[in-house]
Design a protein that fits this description.
Blueprint: E1 12-20, E2 27-35, E3 46-50, H1 57-61, H2 70-76, E4 80-84, H3 111-129, E5 134-139, H4 141-153, E6 157-163, E7 184-187, H5 189-198, H6 205-208, H7 213-222, H8 226-229, E8 234-237, H9 239-248, E9 264-269, H10 277-286, E10 293-298, H11 311-323
Parallel strand pairs: 3-4, 3-5, 5-6, 6-9, 9-10
Antiparallel strand pairs: 1-2, 2-4, 7-8
Helix pairs in contact: 3-4
C-alpha cells in the first residue's frame, strides 16, 4: 500500500485562478496544487477535480488535516492538481438569485450547467499546461458531472475517477427530503456533523472523524462563503436536488455510462447511505465501453470518506490507478 499521507515526495505550490465561464459575468474559481520542483507537465500527471452538490472544492479536497489535504497528497506525489468551483459555489460567481430569499426563484445550477463549467475548467487547464488531455475526478454529484462530460467528450480525458458517484436509486435518497425546492439551500456545517456521523454504526461514530478534523473542516467550509459565514452557514445551489428528483430517483439517467471509453475507477464506502453500494455497482456494470474499470469499496467509511480516518485508503486507490501505465492483466 502507498503511504500517501506519510511519505511526500515533492514540496508543493498552491495558487488560485479566476477564469471565464461560457456566460458573461460569470467567473469560475480554480484551485491549483503542484510540485515546486521543476516538472515537465504531461497529460498523465494532470488532474482536474469537481466537488459535490453541497460543499465546494476547498471544503472537499483541500482541508489540510494530519499535515496534508487530498490535493496536497496528490501534488506531493507529483501531480498537477486542479479543482474547480461550479458557479454558485465557493469562490466562483454567486448568481444574483442567491442574494434573494431561496423561495423566490427556481432551483439553480442543475448538472447540465455544471457540465459546461467543468468543460470550461478542463479547457483552461489544457491550454495553460499545453496538454491534449487531463485526468478527471468527480465526487458525488460532481461524479455525475464528470461522467456526463466524459461520455460526451472522452477524447479530452485520460483516466476517470468517480468517488461516491451519484447514480440511479429505486428508493428515495436522503439528499431530497421532498417538498418544494428553492433556488438554493442554507447549510450549517455544524448541523451537518450529526448527519455525517449518523451513517456509521452507533459504536463507530465517535472515532469516524479523528479529533480536530471536523473543526478544521467546518472552519474551512465556512470560509468558502463569506456572505453567509457570519450566521454559521453556507449557501449551496439546489439544482442537484432537482437532478435527484428528475433523474436519479426517476429512472432517467443524465448520461449513458456505456459511452465512456476511458479507464474508470469507482471508489465507494461501506457506510455510505447517500450513494449506496448497489447504486455504484449498477453504474459499474453499465460501464461496458470503458477501456478497463475498477470498483473499490473503502471499509468503515461514509459518503465523506475523503475527510475521515480511512481516507488514506481512498487516496492510495486513486494514486495507484492514476500511476498505472498499462492496462492491468486480465
Amino acid at each position: 500500500m502507498l503511504q500517501t499521507d506519510n511519505a511526500p515526495n515533492h514540496r508543493i505550490h498552491g495558487e488560485r485562478f479566476m477564469i471565464p465561464s461560457d456566460t458573461d459575468g460569470v467567473q469560475l474559481q480554480l484551485i491549483n496544487k503542484r510540485p515546486v520542483d521543476p516538472v515537465e507537465y504531461s497529460a498523465e500527471r494532470t488532474l482536474v477535480m469537481i466537488h459535490g452538490a453541497t460543499f465546494p472544492s476547498a471544503s472537499l479536497f483541500d482541508v489540510a488535516v494530519a499535515g496534508a489535504s487530498f490535493m496536497d497528497v496528490l501534488a506531493r506525489h507529483g501531480y498537477d492538481v486542479w479543482a474547480v468551483d461550479v458557479r454558485g459555489y465557493g469562490g466562483s460567481t454567486r448568481l444574483p438569485e442567491m442574494s434573494q430569499p431561496p423561495d423566490d426563484n427556481p432551483p439553480l445550477i442543475p448538472a447540465r450547467t455544471a457540465v459546461r463549467d467543468l468543460a470550461a475548467a478542463v479547457d483552461f487547464v489544457r491550454r495553460k499546461r499545453g496538454v491534449g488531455r487531463v485526468n478527471l475526478l468527480g465526487m458525488s454529484w460532481g461524479a455525475t458531472v464528470a461522467g456526463a462530460l466524459a461520455a460526451e467528450a472522452g477524447e479530452r480525458f485520460g483516466k476517470l475517477v468517480l468517488v461516491a458517484p451519484l447514480w440511479l436509486s429505486g428508493t428515495p435518497l436522503r439528499f431530497d427530503s421532498g417538498g418544494p425546492i428553492g433556488a438554493y439551500r442554507i447549510v450549517s456545517p455544524r448541523a451537518f456533523e450529526a448527519a455525517w456521523r449518523a451513517a456509521a454504526p452507533e459504536q463507530e461514530r465517535a472515532g469516524l472523524i479523528p479529533e480536530g478534523w471536523f473543526d478544521a473542516w467546518a472552519e474551512a467550509t465556512l470560509a468558502t462563503d463569506a456572505a453567509s459565514s457570519a450566521a454559521g452557514t453556507i449557501r449551496a445551489p439546489s439544482g442537484a436536488v432537482l437532478d435527484v428528483r428528475q433523474h436519479w430517483t426517476a429512472g432517467n439517467p443524465l448520461y449513458d455510462p456505456s459511452a465512456i471509453a476511458n479507464p474508470v475507477l469507482l471508489v465507494c464506502a461501506e457506510w455510505d447511505v447517500d450513494v449506496r453500494f448497489d447504486m455504484a455497482q449498477d453504474l459499474f456494470t453499465r460501464l461496458t465501453g470503458a477501456r478497463y474499470k475498477r470498483l473499490v469499496e473503502i471499509g468503515r467509511a461514509t459518503h465523506m470518506v475523503l475527510m475521515e480516518k480511512n481516507r488514506g485508503q481512498a487516496f492510495d486507490a486513486v494514486i495507484q490507478f492514476l500511476d498505472e501505465h498499462t492496462v492491468p492483466a486480465g
